[in-house]
Amino acid sequence: MEWIEAAAGALFFVFDAQKRIYWLYLLSSLILTFFVKRRVTFKAELWFNASSRMDLAWLFINQFLTKLLILPLFAMQISLALVVKRLLTAVFGSGNFFLLSDLSLSCLFALALFAGHDFSKFLVHLLFHKIPFLWRFHAVHHSASSLTPLTLYRIHSVELFINALRSLITASLLSGLFIYLFKNNISVFDLLGVNLFVFIFNLAGSNLRHSPVYLGFGKWERLFISPAQHQIHHSARSRHFDKNFGSALSIWDTWFNTLMLSKDEQVKVFGIDQSSFNRQTFKQQWLGIR
Predict the structure, then answer these.
(1) How would residue 156 be classed by pLDDT, with cut points 50, 70 and 90?
(2) For residue 5, is it within any domain?
(3) Domain for residue 42, yes or no?
(4) What's the CA gap between 282 and 140, in Å, rounded?
(5) Cα angle 12, 230, 151; round to 5
């Protein structure tokens, strides 16, 4: 019963503003596609194929594991933030150096969380590609030959757990640092609330990243990762391998020399070129069999 209840929770992602496939984010992507491409088409074969079925299989299994393991893990965030604050106090002495208005502090904290999470995502993503042991798990995501918004959830459970640890560590370090530095009382809502910058990012066509809609941002791609740049990252073309690791910001790719702009590029095939991973069963992907 618990298995069924946890898996069924994935059916309500479209009503959860903290999920990428929240209905408002999906709608904003459709509107953006219409105004930029001047048309919106629905192709059944995009959603009903072997690759999309694999997306759903990983979505449901990971939803169960999230309820079983990940959510209890995140209950530790406040406690870990306070541990970080105590460690900083022990090393550097009493903090509480600054006092800002509550609005200014909330905006600064939201910006720090957004940038901190984005950079940590970039680093972990880079490691998943560069370390062979980690790549065998991340390859599950890249084996998708058809991209839809659900492909976001097509990740191996090992990657899911590593990303959860990354998120917990990043949020705890930044929360503890802010509690130490500022005199203001940072509430639990500030620590756990929906990040404003993530909300804006999701509204700005984030679901087009895993889609066939090739939408570039022009000169802004040197600051923000466009849907087209992420599709380049998923391309089966060898010249596109190991490019555009960024999640929202592209400045990290510039620093690490992995940035590729979408202008004059084309993505015709998604997946892992010449790899049996594209044809694996769920069991084979779960076991990491190549």
Answers:
(1) very high
(2) no
(3) no
(4) 9
(5) 30
User: Which of 192 and 33 is assigned the larger pLDDT?
Assistant: 33
Measured between alpha carbons, how far is residue 21 from residues 69, 118, 210, 278 in Å?
22, 19, 11, 24
Q: Are 171 and 113 in contact (CB under 8 A)?
A: yes
The answer to the question of residue 14 being in a domain is no
Query: Of 2-16, 43-57, 130-144, 199-213, which gets the smallest average pLDDT?
Result: 2-16
Cα–Cα distance measured from residue 82 to residue 261, given in angstroms and rounded to the nearest whole number: 41
pLDDT for 53 equals 84
Domain that residue 53 falls in: 20-37+47-287
- Out of 57-61, 122-126, 144-148, least confident range: 57-61
What pLDDT score was predicted for residue 228?
96
CA dihedral sign, ordered 40, 46, 47, 48: positive
Task: State the average pLDDT for the chain.
Answer: 85
Distance, CA of 209 to CA of 222 (rounded, Å): 16
Is residue 71 scored above 70 in pLDDT? yes
Number of domains in the chain: 1
In the DSSP assignment, the letter for residue 66 is I
What percentage of the chain reaches a pLDDT higher than 70? 85
State the virtual CA torsion across 270, 272, 274, 275 in degrees, nearest 10. -130
Please tell me whether residue 249 adopts helix, strand or coil conformation: strand
> What's the maximum distance between 2 C-alpha atoms anywhere in the chain?
62
List, in order, residues 6 or more apart from 253 with CB less than 8 Å away. 122, 225, 243, 244, 245, 246, 259
Residue 280 in any domain: the answer is yes
Average pLDDT over residues 217-233: 95
Residues 6+ apart with CB under 8 A from 107: 196
CA-based radius of gyration for the chain? 20
